[in-house]
Structures are given as structure tokens and as C-alpha cells.
Amino acid sequence: METDGNVPHVQAKFFTKQKGISVPDSPFSIPYNVGVIELSSLINSLLSQDEAESRGLVNFDFLVDGEFLREPLNQFLQRKEASTESVIDIEYLERQPAPEPEDALVHDDWVAALAASQDYILTGCYDNVVRVWNTEGDLLMTIPGHSGPVKCLAWLHNEDGVAQKTFVTGSHDETLLVWRWNQQTNSLDCVHSCRGHAGSVDTVTVSPNGQRFCTGSWDKLLKIWSASLDHSADADDDEAPQKKKKKTDGQKLPSRVPLLTLSGHSEGVSSALWVNEDVVATASWDHTIRLWDLHHGIQKSAITGAKVFLDLSICPETQLMLAASADRHVRLYDHRITDGASVKSTFTSHTAWVSSVSWSPCHPNQFISGSYDAILKLWDTRSPKAPLYDMTGHEDKILAVDWSMPQYMLSGGADNHLKIFSYQAREAQIPS
Amino acid sequence: EATLDSNEEDDNSDSEESQYSGLSEDESSGEDDSEDEILEWESDDDEEEEEEEEEEDGVMQDIEVNGLESKSNEIDSSDEEDIRNTIGNVPLEWYKEFDHIGYDLMGKKIGKPAKSDELDKFLDRMDNPDYWRTVEDRKTGQKVVLSDKDAEAIKRFRNGQYTDPSYDPYAPWVEFFTNEVMEHPVKATPPHKRSFIPSLTEKKKVSQYVHAMKMGWMKPMKPLPSEEEEQDPRPSYYQLWTSDSDFTRRFKHHIPAPKLKLPGHAESYNPPAEYLLTEEEELAWKDQEPEDRRRNFIPQKFSSLRLVPAFKRFVNERFERCLDLYLCPRQRKMRMNVNPEDLIPKLPKPRELQPFPTVQSLVYRGHSAVVRCLTASLDGQWMASGSDDGTVKVWEVSTARCMKTFTLGHAVKRIAWNPNSSVCLLAVAVEKQVLLLNPGLGDRLIISHTDSLLQSALNSRQDPDESETGKKIPADWHECSAEEKANGLRIKISHAKNVTHVSWHSKGDYFVSLMPEGQSQSVFIHQLSRIRSQIPFSKSKGLVQSVLFHPTRPFLFVATQRYIRVYNLLKQELSKKLTSSCKWISSMAIHPGGDNLIIGSYDCRLSWFDLDLSTKPYQTLRHQKKAIRNVCFHRSYPLFASCSDDASVVVCHGRVYNDLLQNPLIVPVKVLRGHEETKGQLGVTDCHFHPTQPWIFSAGADHTVRLFT
């Protein structure tokens, strides 16, 4: 690295948590206004001195103070008001490879809901149809059953070896349908319907142990349902509604009533999430995120925001919540902080409403967000100013995103497409 | 005293002194120095050495100064002896009769200098440029020429200044010790332990005093000032404004007399011809009363100024002028100095009034013609819009998805969602009909409930209505055919003329429709539960523009082109008539509290009426450049908006206070632009707030509906 005569220098020490690319632990004097590219080439030259030449040139990213370096170092330090006299510790790691557009699945109508698991993708559309796809892009099944647009769906049981899989779908027609799908015979039957909501069912979430699921609706209510397929267990509960149903519909579809109904929101519930086995978090149009204690059936706490919340996602490891709201920002909340500002950071890069967010299943720092500006963005929480990657391709609003499968990021939108982006997470970054 | 050249060569003391006096800064130090030197000289016997020293010193620069110095010495100290004249301190008059004036050190006589007579003095004065500074030494009789420095010193001394010009008495004082605590003190010794301990001697002294007071040995001092008061019996107050009489006040508030008019061309001795009166004019002037005359003289022309006679009326005119000044009261005009900025009311900044819509968030595309009207459902999940393409579209608010499209065939003029939450019904004004439309969205129970409600109302109506058909009502209720029912239509109400407006009562049972061309039968009130219509007015009051129900009380607002009439429906009387300042009212909206009303007009004005305050507008806003098409209030936030043909929506903060004494606060907060300006006349045709969020929908001539959040 050449030294310019006029530019002041700072002392920096490089370290990494990744194996096999470590450089000497001695401080280097680097120009004050160095950028990421120069730093990356510095690390590369250091590595080529130390290690085998076989390793090609690798792009690195640099973390200073737990935040990604995205601008020249001097600007970064000025913004952080950090001292330039002490030795700066810079962590470096191999840059994430860009996500590759893998496939685009064409639907007949807007894709409003997505759920992926174990190589199968469920999509719910505005044409009232649920579709089952595999990751190769083959349409396995088209399921008409709802009489309104399908707004939410979730896998109930989807074990790896078991051929029989179940999922639940919720719709504008105020019902939820529980489906049993045999993967090998590709046969499907509707187990039962869940009735009780008096508004469109906008969100469904399955408890960690798969025994229950929770739905939120425009009728401001939150309902907990049993996920068991065994009807003998709750035959008593079912009896009355079943009789009524027979009279009206004449259809032999057993229906269920909720185990628990929780009210408290003053507007429609837009998103619900299980925090743990006894706690559900909901986001609503009334500008609040609420936590519900299911064991006692009461509201535990509430976080008040300034805008309508559209989606919620919770990191399984750090328990931090991401909320997408009816503005351009994605906000990171810590629901364990009960007083004061619970917004930990704000991610701003979208130009329209952010409709959906999803944490990475394997990386505690990464998440994706889909917005009405038709761009899917991959973020790292350590880089709040700019996303890691922008994924374009959609031609209209993105309505749903999913990142349940570590290698695939999914987004569905108002252009009738489901886009699949493949992504190789760095092995070394996956915490053990 | 003696200059060097005039003195003897061996006069050493003089040279010695001269060396020091040059260095001396002020007189006292000079004196000391010279004294020392004299002592030195007296102890010194060897004259030759002194001579040598003098020669070594070379040029004596300050010799004249020395002369002055020594002279001052003589004055200052009487002990001082003049060493060149040894007669001592005796008056010189004693030597008047001798030829000498004393003896020098060697005992020789010092001769009297030749006395110059007056002529010599005069010549000297003329010839000698230094005459003015030549003084005579009385002791030796020698003439001494003062140097420039001496002259300057004398001058300064006379003026009361320091004689040395280089001395600055006001030089900045350099403090040797400062009172500030210094970081590095001059003396770093810590304070002694003693300084922290109360003094023992003081304690002893105090205890002595205390003891003395207890024993009565010591008495406190008597207060002194009482004696002074006794001494001065005069009161210590006096009248401050004794001189403040009417006379002085007149001078203080002096009003200058008005100035006399300057003479013009007519007064000239040689006026231009047009100022001269013709004979008829002269006759007319003479006929007039002296008070009526425009001029009190006749302009006259003279060939030269010399021929101008004396002005006969001079004294009269002076007298009249004096009368004027004396009799005419003059008044000082009070001029108010008001800062124009103080007149602007203090309004809060828009940022403090958030939330209000600021950015365009969603665009609802799908219509193929101008979107005329829109309305939002009560819970804010749906929004319906009607367009010139003959369709009503119902949209999902959050995603801008068109959920349903109802084709009605004709341009939709007005659409209104039923404000009753248990009914799902849209009233649509299309051509000559008002259609009741069930969009079939939302809760299925409510949808079916709506249908059954309408059906039961229709069924119960049949009998009474047919019996009393004698009274002709030009609004017919029809049940829709099965085909139309599949399209969502439920009931048609046919009118005689085109219907332009429809709006619901807040309970959702009554609604009012407007037929501007219907003359006296322009306003209809329809009741949904009893399937009937009535005409509230028998006479036409003008072209009705808009009608509205009061949200809580049985009032109906009817806006004609310039007036808004408020009718009490129970008493069936006109309760108020509001006068708008605008020319043609286009639309009207009422605050959910019911005490405030806004109207929009085609002449770009938006007027706010406080119904309790006045029948005139409380405030009129002109923020839009083209005709205002529609105005609306937010249901829960203190917001109102107007949309206009310049493709903008202006959102204002309008807070109404419960305190009746406090006027509403109206602050324009945001101009929302998003709709494209079309070539036609129309811009934004309708705007409507979201029922629960601080969002606003706007319907534009660019075939779109937009949501601003």
C-alpha cells in the first residue's frame, strides 16, 4: 500500500473470526481516508505473503465497532466521533456473495402469502387458490377451497421423512382451512375449517412445538387454535357448530372453534408471531406491537410505534423483533425493554412502504425486506445505513417474503411472480 | 542657566550635571543626581582630571536641558548655592550700584553684562529667531537660549501636563500579584494549619467583651443619625415638576404651524397668458362672494417688476393668517408604530402538528376515465371509487388491489359508504338514479344481514305505499332484478332529473340525495328502513350545490351558490343562514363535533364557519390556484383537506377546542401533489380521509386514486 505524503495515517489492527484467513496481529498504519476496496486489497496482499498463492483474490468486508464500513474510514470515524489516535480494531470477513436469481414462478394472480419448508413452497394468491411448488419450480398442486383471497398460510407438520404433511391457510373469507397433503401420492384432503373470525384472516403463525397456531384478523381479535388433526379429542367442542354447518352448507367439512380468543387491539391485526411456547407477539394497524401471555390469556406488554405495522419477524437466537410499517423504514425492536425507546435501530433504504420482513434462519444478523417499491433487500443489522444487496426483478409491489430455507430467499408480489433467489451463506459465519 | 559655550571652560560641575540630567526621567531624580555630583565635585580636588573627563565625553548633547535643570534646582532648594557666583543667596538688587554682580570661585568679579537698550532689544527681537526663548539668568546676567526640549517642557508644564512627553501616566498597569487563583501560584506553600483553627486570642477578646456587656461595663453605641435629623428640620421632599406649567407643556408638545402655500404662476407679476382672466371671467369673479372665490386676487400682468404697485391687502392677509393660526385648533396626529410581523398570528409549526399525510404511498390504478368520487368503509379496510367510465371499484386499502368492479353503465357522480357498522351498503348517484349497492366485502354476517334488512324493508313497504299513491313523489324505489343483484345492486331509487349528490346521516338510516335541476324538488330525504322518500322543501331557494346532515342533531345543511341554510328537521324551520364570502360554493363538509363547517368554492376559497360564533366565515383560506372541488374532515384527527383543479390536495390542521371561548386553530400543514395535471379542466375531483389513520385518498382526473400517508 503506497503512502501518500499529505494524508494523515491511523493505526489499525486487523482480526477475523473466520479460520484460515488470519493476518499478523500487529498494527498497521493506514491512510486516514482509506476505503473498503483499498483495505480489501491490503488484506489480500497480506494473505498472499502468508499463505498459499492458490487462494484467489477475495473481497472482504470490514467491521469497525460492530458496524460495517461502507464509506471512507475518515468519514466513518467522524460520524462515530471516534478517536483517530488510538489503534482501531477492524474485523474483516469475507464478503457475502451476491444472491443469485434462481427462478420465477408465474401465478395467475397476485401472490399474497408465502410459506416455504423442506423443499416445498406454499403460495396463496388473490385468485383464492393455494399452490404447492417444489424448489425446482414445478407446480405440484393447485388447491381451490377458499372463497376469498388467501392472505396467510403456514406449515403445520412438515417433518423431513414423513410423507404426510399438513398446512393451514387463511383467507379473506374469514376462515382457515387445515389441509393434509400426502407428498408421495400427491393426494390432498381438507381436514377441517376454523371458523370464528369476523374479518379477513391476515396472519397465521404456528407454535414452536407445532401443537397450536395463532391467527390475527381484521376484526381486531387474536385466536389460538389447536393444530391437532385428531377430531376425537375435541369432538365435544365441535358438535354444536358441526350441526349448524350441516344445516346451512350440507357440506361434510368439520369445523372448529378457537381454544382462546384475545382482544385488545383497536385495529386489525396485521401480523402475529410466537415468541416462545407461551408468548405471542402481534402487530396491528393501531400502531402497537403487543405481547400476549397465552398461559393466563392476558396482554403482557405493548410497544407503541408511530405508524401502522404491516409485518413482524423475530430472530430465533437474539429474540429481536423486526417490524415493517407503513413507511419507508424497517425498525428493530427489543421487546424485552419495557420502558424507554425500544427501537434499537432503523433501516432505511426503501422508497415505499415495507410490506414484509423475514430474518435469516441461520444468521443472527441478516434479514430480508420486501417493499412496495418492488425491491427485495438483504440487510445486515451491522449496516443500518445501506443494505448488503438489492434484488430487483419484481415489476410491482412485493407483498410477501420468506426466508425459511437458508439457501433460498423468496418473494411474491403484485406482478403475479414468485421470485426465488439462491444464497450461499458463509459457513464460518454460522454460529455453532 | 549658563550654556557651555557661554560658561568658563573649567566649570566642571555643569558638565558633570549635564551627563546625568540627560538620563534623568523626572525632576526629583534629576535633583538627587545633581546633588550627588556636587558632593563628588567638592571632594574632588584635581581640576585637570575633570577637564580631561569632559573632553573625553566629547559632545554634550543635553547641555541646554541641564541649564534648565539647574535653574529649577535653584528655585526648588534654597540651600543650593550657585557655584559660579559666590555671593550667596542675597537679592541681586544689592549689586545694583556696582559694575559687577558677584564673584566667581576664584574671587574675581563677575562683570555686569552690557545692558542693552530698547533699540537693541527691538533689533534683537527682529533679527534673532531665538529671541522668544532667550532668557536672562539673574544671578550671572547671562542670556540663555532655551532649547526646543526646554521650550516644550515649559509648554507642557504650563498646560498642567507631565514635562516629559515620553511618560505615559495611563500605561496599562501590570499587576505583580493577581487576585485570581493561578494554576501555578507564585508561592506554593500550603495554608498554615493556624488558618483553619479559630483564633484563640479573638476568642478571648470576644469573651472579654461579652463579660463586659453582661456586667454592664460596656454599652452599645447610640444610633448617630437621629441627631442629624434633628438638625435638619426641612422636609426632604420637593416638587419635582414645579416648572411644569401650561406654558411649558405647550412648548413640550409644540405643534408647528401649517406652512403657507408657496406662490404659483398666478401670483407672478408676469403670469403666463392662460392665468390671466378674460373679461367674462373677471366679471364672474367680481360677482362671486369673497368666500367663494377660488383666488382672492386677479392675476395681473406687468411689463417689469418695477411697475408692480404695493400690495394693498398685505396687512389684511397677515391678519387673517394670524387669526388662522390663533383660532384654528391644531391637533397632534397619533401615529401607531406597529410592526407588521406582530400582526401575523402566532401559529405552531406544521412539524408539531403531526401526524398528517405527507407522502404519496399507494396508487390505485384501474379506472379508464376520470375518477369522480370516492369513499372509504367505516373500518378502513376498503375504499370505493366511482368514475366516468361507469364503474364503481372497491379497493383493498393496504395493497391497492381492486377487489370488485361494478359496472353501472353511466358516469358515477357521487358515492357514499353507509356509516352504520352493521350494514355494508354503498349509495351511488348515477344519472337519474340513486343505487344502493352491496359490495359484498368484509364480514359475511354483515353482508347477509344487510341483504335481509333490505329485503324485509321492501316486503313490509308494499301495502301502505300502494294505498297512498295519491301524493305523487318523484322518487321511486325499485327492487333490482336477479341479474342486477348478482352484480351487487339491491335497490334503485329513480329520480326525475340527474342526481349529483348523495350523503348519509351518521346513523345510516336516512340519506339525502340532490337533484340540482329539480327546482323546488331538488332535495330528497330517503329513509332506508321504511323505504320511503320525502321532499323537505316546498320552495326553491336557488341552485342547490350540496346537502349534508348534522352528525348528531336533526339539522340539514343545504348549500346554494352563496348561502348555506341550516334547517331544523324536527321543527321544520330555517334555523340559520350562513353567508359565505365566495361566489359559487362547490362542496361542504361538517366537523364530526357538528359545530364547525367548511365549504369549498369554485373561486378557490375554503371557508371555515364556526356555527356558534357567527354566520360569517371564521376564516377563509386561499391556498389553491384553481377551483376547489371537494372538502373533507377527518373523523378522529384534527385534520381537514381540500382538493382542487390544480391537481393538489391541501391538508390543514383544524383543531376545535371544547372551551367555547377559544377559537379553532387552523394551520395549513401540507400541499400534496401527486396527481398528474390533465389537459382538461379537472385536477383532483374528490378527497376523503381514511377513517382511522391520518391518511387521505384523492381521486384524480388522471384516472387514478392515490393514498397519501
Automatic annotation (TrEMBL), chain A:
<dbReference type="GO" id="GO:0043021">
    <property type="term" value="F:ribonucleoprotein complex binding"/>
</dbReference>
<feature type="repeat" description="WD">
    <location>
        <begin position="143"/>
        <end position="179"/>
    </location>
</feature>
<dbReference type="InterPro" id="IPR012972">
    <property type="entry name" value="NLE"/>
</dbReference>
<feature type="region of interest" description="Disordered">
    <location>
        <begin position="233"/>
        <end position="252"/>
    </location>
</feature>
<comment type="function">
    <text>Required for maturation of ribosomal RNAs and formation of the large ribosomal subunit.</text>
</comment>
<feature type="repeat" description="WD">
    <location>
        <begin position="104"/>
        <end position="136"/>
    </location>
</feature>
<dbReference type="Pfam" id="PF00400">
    <property type="entry name" value="WD40"/>
</dbReference>
<dbReference type="GO" id="GO:0030687">
    <property type="term" value="C:preribosome, large subunit precursor"/>
</dbReference>
<keyword id="KW-0698">rRNA processing</keyword>
<feature type="domain" description="NLE">
    <location>
        <begin position="10"/>
        <end position="77"/>
    </location>
</feature>
<keyword id="KW-0677">Repeat</keyword>
<protein>
    <recommendedName>
        <fullName>Ribosome biogenesis protein WDR12 homolog</fullName>
    </recommendedName>
</protein>
<dbReference type="InterPro" id="IPR019775">
    <property type="entry name" value="WD40_repeat_CS"/>
</dbReference>
<keyword id="KW-0853">WD repeat</keyword>
<feature type="repeat" description="WD">
    <location>
        <begin position="347"/>
        <end position="389"/>
    </location>
</feature>
<dbReference type="InterPro" id="IPR020472">
    <property type="entry name" value="WD40_PAC1"/>
</dbReference>
<dbReference type="Pfam" id="PF08154">
    <property type="entry name" value="NLE"/>
</dbReference>
<feature type="repeat" description="WD">
    <location>
        <begin position="262"/>
        <end position="294"/>
    </location>
</feature>
<dbReference type="InterPro" id="IPR015943">
    <property type="entry name" value="WD40/YVTN_repeat-like_dom_sf"/>
</dbReference>
<dbReference type="InterPro" id="IPR001680">
    <property type="entry name" value="WD40_rpt"/>
</dbReference>
<dbReference type="GO" id="GO:0000463">
    <property type="term" value="P:maturation of LSU-rRNA from tricistronic rRNA transcript (SSU-rRNA, 5.8S rRNA, LSU-rRNA)"/>
</dbReference>
<feature type="repeat" description="WD">
    <location>
        <begin position="194"/>
        <end position="226"/>
    </location>
</feature>
TrEMBL record, chain B:
<feature type="repeat" description="WD">
    <location>
        <begin position="364"/>
        <end position="405"/>
    </location>
</feature>
<keyword id="KW-0853">WD repeat</keyword>
<comment type="function">
    <text>Component of the PeBoW complex, which is required for maturation of 28S and 5.8S ribosomal RNAs and formation of the 60S ribosome.</text>
</comment>
<keyword id="KW-0539">Nucleus</keyword>
<dbReference type="InterPro" id="IPR036322">
    <property type="entry name" value="WD40_repeat_dom_sf"/>
</dbReference>
<keyword id="KW-0698">rRNA processing</keyword>
<feature type="compositionally biased region" description="Acidic residues">
    <location>
        <begin position="24"/>
        <end position="59"/>
    </location>
</feature>
<dbReference type="GO" id="GO:0070545">
    <property type="term" value="C:PeBoW complex"/>
</dbReference>
<dbReference type="GO" id="GO:0030687">
    <property type="term" value="C:preribosome, large subunit precursor"/>
</dbReference>
<keyword id="KW-0690">Ribosome biogenesis</keyword>
<dbReference type="GO" id="GO:0043021">
    <property type="term" value="F:ribonucleoprotein complex binding"/>
</dbReference>
<feature type="domain" description="BOP1 N-terminal">
    <location>
        <begin position="95"/>
        <end position="357"/>
    </location>
</feature>
<feature type="region of interest" description="Disordered">
    <location>
        <begin position="1"/>
        <end position="84"/>
    </location>
</feature>
<dbReference type="Pfam" id="PF08145">
    <property type="entry name" value="BOP1NT"/>
</dbReference>
<dbReference type="InterPro" id="IPR012953">
    <property type="entry name" value="BOP1_N_dom"/>
</dbReference>
<dbReference type="InterPro" id="IPR019775">
    <property type="entry name" value="WD40_repeat_CS"/>
</dbReference>
<dbReference type="Pfam" id="PF00400">
    <property type="entry name" value="WD40"/>
</dbReference>
<protein>
    <recommendedName>
        <fullName>BOP1 N-terminal domain-containing protein</fullName>
    </recommendedName>
</protein>
<keyword id="KW-0677">Repeat</keyword>
<dbReference type="GO" id="GO:0000463">
    <property type="term" value="P:maturation of LSU-rRNA from tricistronic rRNA transcript (SSU-rRNA, 5.8S rRNA, LSU-rRNA)"/>
</dbReference>
<feature type="compositionally biased region" description="Acidic residues">
    <location>
        <begin position="1"/>
        <end position="17"/>
    </location>
</feature>
<dbReference type="InterPro" id="IPR028598">
    <property type="entry name" value="BOP1/Erb1"/>
</dbReference>
